[in-house]
């Protein structure tokens, strides 16, 4: 198993009914493999189907057609119990850190929630694990008693990441996970995500509308347009020689901070 | 086109002070705008940039209060005007567009009714004349088949088209100044590019001066002649855009620039970050508000009020540098610290991360 892709998406279709009774194909025949240990970036504009595809992969919704294999097992054929066990391997971090944390719970309770749900460890083992996780996301141990309302956006997103890592997953879906953060905080979280990936050997599906951020974090990138995956390429290829005209359109639309530095575009650095 | 020797400014904001209750949130903000000029106000959330714009146009509401300063539009102080007087100015001579066109348009009124309302509020024209102007305006902002679209409601438009409608309304009475608060933040990147192009063209054609408020330095870079950076309610740096993006002088500006990830960013190493958090309004430290996060700060930064003053200029360090204004006593003026971005970045990454 160890050699194949961690996630393998084959001919996935997901439609929604529209108000006038028609069908809208949010995901329209997508096939893609996500390599073990890779950070795969999924870009596209709103409505392109990237979040629907990720919801299919997370099994938050069932695809109408096609199959999604995780670690070689077709998720559509698993029993409830098998799926539940598999879910500990697949975690997600959403865009709005405050919206995705229960504001009545403490930081420690939030991070321990997946451990409790999967009945992992004793109380003291869980407390120990929470301490490890806080350390991993570089939050001080004194944070355990805080409520989400007492956290800044960056701190809240670190808590959401710690929770996602609680069960030592192989695969983390990051759905616009840095999009709501301020510039300086976003840089911190991007660095953290990169460190965690290297340290824990994580596989990422990183969904974003921000090509600069995707270029920083992901070595392989898929471009979605109107439900279809129009291009999949390695980072350097995609940014220096995009093949699909829509990719070129997207790249051209990204504003540049310092026009005089734009020449750097043609020589993208090596991330590793 | 950088403003070199400014004539009498069209908009002159002097020492603007805004507070929420008793907490000062905009502190002594001053800037000038010449006819047709474009100022970018950049900063992170909570820096006071939106409240600055709302106060300039008199749209702030309790508990936000303007506690000092002047907003001179062609020499007349808008802050000293009565409500009725400013209602005549707002929309006619100075107008504003917002981040979210979905919530700033009335969902129960047709687009046509909203544009004609804006026109007829300020100009004595007939309904038919106003309708014709509305068609023209919609066409001008790139809404296809404008006459047919007059009867449509905001929800029938996409986000980008709604923002075009907002721009049409804002420009309906040919204002001299347009305030744009994060006008493209809610839009997709390709739509953003189109809307920025549109704003660029319209401002140029109609000679409109504009203030662009954004957290996105790249957006400001493509649009503005000069840049003001806000931090903790103050303008901490103000400079011509070309100089600013090449050679920021305030350590916060430099940090913000190097933490921005665009397609030219160096991805071979960790991104430079700014340690810590911005201070909370109401409990600001003495001296420089940025000093606890600043790699260059020393004891001298901890005392007194730090004024906005000229930094750089021809002659300093033998380099030819445009004059910037910065609220900093340890500005990045020498070539050594400015030239070596890597070293600077390394210094900025030091310290405890507390994001």
Write up what this structure looks like.
The complex is a heterodimer of chains A (272) and B (355). Chain A has 272 residues and is of the alpha/beta class. Chain A has a domain at 1-89 and 173-185 and 205-272: Rossmann fold (3-Layer(aba) Sandwich), CATH 3.40.50. In chain A, 35% of the residues lie in helices and 24% in strands. In chain A, strand 1 (7-17) and strand 2 (23-34) form a beta hairpin. Chain B has an 8-stranded mixed β-sheet, with helices on both faces. Chain B has a 4-stranded antiparallel β-sheet with strand order 2-1-4-5, covered by helices on one side. The model of chain B is unreliable at 335-355 (pLDDT under 50). In chain B, a hairpin with a 2-residue loop joins strand 4 and strand 5 (76-77). In chain B, helix 4 (111-122) packs across helix 5, helix 4 runs parallel beside helix 7 and helix 7 (159-170) runs parallel beside helix 8 (189-206). Chain B has 2 domains: 11-224, P-loop containing nucleotide triphosphate hydrolases (Rossmann fold); 248-349, no CATH class. The two termini of chain B are 38 Å apart. Chains A and B meet through helix 5, helix 6, helix 7 and helix 9 of A and helix 8, helix 9 and helix 11 of B.
């Amino acid at each position: 198993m160890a050699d194949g892709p961690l996630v393998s998406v084959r001919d996935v279709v997901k439609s929604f009914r529209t108000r006038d009774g028609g069908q809208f194909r949010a995901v329209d025949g997508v096939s893609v493999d996500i390599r073990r240990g890779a950070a795969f970036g999924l870009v596209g504009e709103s409505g392109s189907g990237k979040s629907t595809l990720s919801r299919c992969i997370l099994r938050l919704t069932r695809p109408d057609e096609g199959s999604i294999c995780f670690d070689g097992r077709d998720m559509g054929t698993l029993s409830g119990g098998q799926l539940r066990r598999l879910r500990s391997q697949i975690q997600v971090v959403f865009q709005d850190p405050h919206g995705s944390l229960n504001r009545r719970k403490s930081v420690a309770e939030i991070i321990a929630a997946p451990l409790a749900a999967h009945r992992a460890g004793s109380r003291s083992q869980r407390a120990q694990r929470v301490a490890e996780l806080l350390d991993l996301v570089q939050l001080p141990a004194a944070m355990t008693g805080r409520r989400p309302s007492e956290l800044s956006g960056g701190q809240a997103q670190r808590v959401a990441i710690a929770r996602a890592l609680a069960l030592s997953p192989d695969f983390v879906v990051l759905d616009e996970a840095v999009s709501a953060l301020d510039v300086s905080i976003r840089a911190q979280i991007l660095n953290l995500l990169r460190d965690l990936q290297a340290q824990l050997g994580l596989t990422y599906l990183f969904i974003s509308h921000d090509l600069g951020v995707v270029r920083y974090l992901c070595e392989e990138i898929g471009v979605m347009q109107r439900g279809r995956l129009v291009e999949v390429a390695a980072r350097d290829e995609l940014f220096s020689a995009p093949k699909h005209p829509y990719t070129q359109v997207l790249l051209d639309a990204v504003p540049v901070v310092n026009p005089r530095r734009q020449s750097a575009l043609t020589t993208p650095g090596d991330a590793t | 086109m950088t403003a070199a020797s400014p004539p009498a400014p069209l908009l002159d904001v002097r020492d603007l002070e805004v507070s929420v209750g008793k907490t000062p949130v905009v502190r002594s903000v001053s800037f000038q705008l010449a006819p047709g000029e474009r100022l970018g106000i950049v900063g992170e959330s909570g820096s006071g940039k939106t409240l600055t714009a709302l106060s300039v146009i008199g749209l702030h509401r309790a508990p936000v209060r303007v506690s000092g300063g002047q907003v001179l539009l062609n020499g007349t102080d808008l802050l000293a005007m009565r409500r009725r007087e400013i209602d005549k100015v707002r929309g006619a001579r100075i107008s504003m567009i917002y981040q979210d066109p979905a919530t700033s348009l009335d969902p129960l009124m047709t687009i046509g009714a909203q544009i004609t309302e804006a026109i007829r509020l300020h100009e004595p024209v007939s309904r038919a004349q106003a309708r014709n102007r509305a068609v023209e305006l919609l066409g001008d902002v790139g809404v296809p088949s404008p006459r047919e679209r007059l009867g449509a409601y905001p929800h029938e438009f996409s986000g980008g088209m709604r923002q075009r409608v907002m721009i049409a309304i804002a420009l309906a009475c040919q204002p001299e100044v347009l305030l744009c608060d994060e006008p493209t933040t809610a839009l997709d990147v390709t739509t953003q590019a189109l809307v920025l192009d549109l704003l660029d063209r319209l401002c140029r054609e109609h000679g409109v001066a504009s203030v662009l408020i954004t957290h996105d330095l790249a957006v400001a870079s493509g649009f503005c002649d000069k840049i003001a950076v806000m931090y903790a309610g103050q303008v901490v740096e103000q400079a011509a855009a070309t100089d600013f993006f090449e050679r920021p002088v305030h350590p916060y500006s430099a940090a913000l620039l190097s933490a921005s990830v665009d397609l030219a960013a160096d991805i071979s190493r960790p991104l430079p970050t700014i340690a810590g958090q911005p201070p909370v309004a109401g409990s600001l430290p003495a001296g420089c508000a940025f000093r606890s996060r600043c790699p260059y700060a020393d004891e001298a930064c901890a005392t007194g009020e730090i004024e906005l003053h000229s930094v750089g200029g021809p002659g300093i360090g033998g380099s030819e540098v445009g004059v910037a204004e910065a609220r900093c006593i340890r500005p990045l003026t020498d070539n050594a610290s400015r030239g070596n971005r890597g070293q600077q970045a390394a210094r900025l990454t030091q310290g405890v991360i507390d994001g």
